[in-house]
Amino acid sequence: MNPPRLLTALLPLMADLAQDLPEAERHRRLLETLRVLLPCDAAAMLRLDGDWLVPLAVDGLSGDTLGRRFRVAEHPRFVQLLAASAPVRFAADCGLPDPFDGLVEAVQGHLPVHDCMGCALQVDGRPWGVLTLDALDVGRFSRVDLQVLQAFASLAAATVALAGRMQGLAARAEDERLRADSYAETGGHGPRQLIGHSAAHKRLMKDIALAGPTELCVLIQGETGTGKELVAQALHAASTRAKRPLVSINCAALPDSLVESELFGHVRGAFTGAVGDRRGKFELADGGTLFLDEVAELPLPVQAKLLRVLQGGHLQRLGSDREHRVDVRVIAASNRNLAEEVRAGRLRADFYHRLSVYPLQVPTLRERGRDVLPIGGFFLEEARSRMGLGGVRLDAGAQAALLAYDWPGNVRELEHLLGRSVVKALGRHAQRPRILTLGADDLGLGPASVTAAAAAPHDAAASAPGASVGLRDAVADLERRMVLQALEQHGQQWAAAARALRIDPANLARMAKRLGIARG
Hints:
By secondary structure, this protein is of the alpha/beta class. The chain has helices at 3-16, 23-37, 76-83, 146-185, 199-211, 228-237, 259-264, 281-284, 300-312, 338-343, 349-355, 372-387, 396-404, 410-426, 440-443, 447-455, 460-463, 471-489, 494-501, 505-515, and strands spanning 42-49, 52-59, 70-71, 88-90, 115-123, 126-135, 218-221, 246-250, 265-266, 278-279, 289-293, 314-316, 323-325, 329-334, 358-361, 391-394, 435-438. The chain folds into 3 domains: 3-166, Beta-Lactamase; 186-363, 3-Layer(aba) Sandwich (Rossmann fold); 365-445, Helicase, Ruva Protein, domain 3. It is 45% helix and 16% strand. A 6-stranded antiparallel beta sheet has the order 3-2-1-6-5-4, sandwiched between helices.
């Protein structure tokens, strides 16, 4: 082939280097150009994957070829191509079996004696894959200049190397976008932390410390608003995958028609509107962690496909025959009782058992006692920063109201309540105060929630029909109960009780005297 014709044939490929093309389309164009340069009856481009060669694009071979994997050691022609430093032309009567015997579209049954040649593709000095050409006419390749094939192979290798680097840059950009989105969701304050000192919180943190560094699937269960996503973030941060992305997906927010595409990705043309290839959440999380929130909302057919990915890491994009392998740790969460879901037939038993290798229960806010105050402090600080205030504090009545309420919406309810209360409290001031103080009235929880919880089993008079308890008495009663409880838990050791209540021992002594608690 003369140089001008060679250059003319290669120009479109060089132009493609600057295009953001889907991987499959880039490979198809490479083969199309190869057949223009070197007319043949079949051509294939295969990528080396360990001990196997995987077809990426074929022309003139049956469609099922793309679904096959060829073990290199079982095909002498592939062995010879990968070992050679230059293109190889096989003699028509060389006797080596052809890997594509029975797959050439123009031939029914056994492939007769024919011409065959090919070469290895080298990327960064290592074998990346091979190109092969088959011609049914003996002698078709006898006058072919192997330097033409070598020149094409060099350009093909440059193309796949550049495409790989572009994909790597795109993946890193996507990782950074995911981190930026996560940061934005916290209002720019950085990732939120699990806060608390209660026994229930400490048990949760112990579970996270045990399960985090493992590769086990963790199933997080708990009521709505308890902070299951924060637990997933803590598990990821404690793992060896912490430097890789944590990708979250809310299964309840996905329409049934898009679930598979979101999880596994799709190729162009897989469905109406699929104008290009797209990676799914599993591929985005490759090397990291995938958090499946509200996992019980997934349809049963999708659960079966997910099970295969969980067991072996193998997935196929929607509309593709090509298999991808991913290395992903899965953390799932649900506010439902998944064992009950299995019994009701809404969740596959094998899927449930695969997810719940390490079950973890997140305690409700009402089980966490005084944790409501430091958690509330975190949300108040966020509100202070967001509204440009000098400070936001809770008075004693507001603290008592928070402690007495039973929080059916858990931490999320607390967050929304405090954000709303800051706005309401600001509305009471003609001028913006330097420090905003929230009272019980600003919270809007109502006096009944405080008096009922504070007075209940310890004040028979208050619990009698028609009894009325003032806010000051309710707060004092709550303080008295907490001091007595701390003393009982620490064997009447006042210093230990003070540490548990997080107050100075001298302040505890003065409080006890005011509350009428005798020091034994």
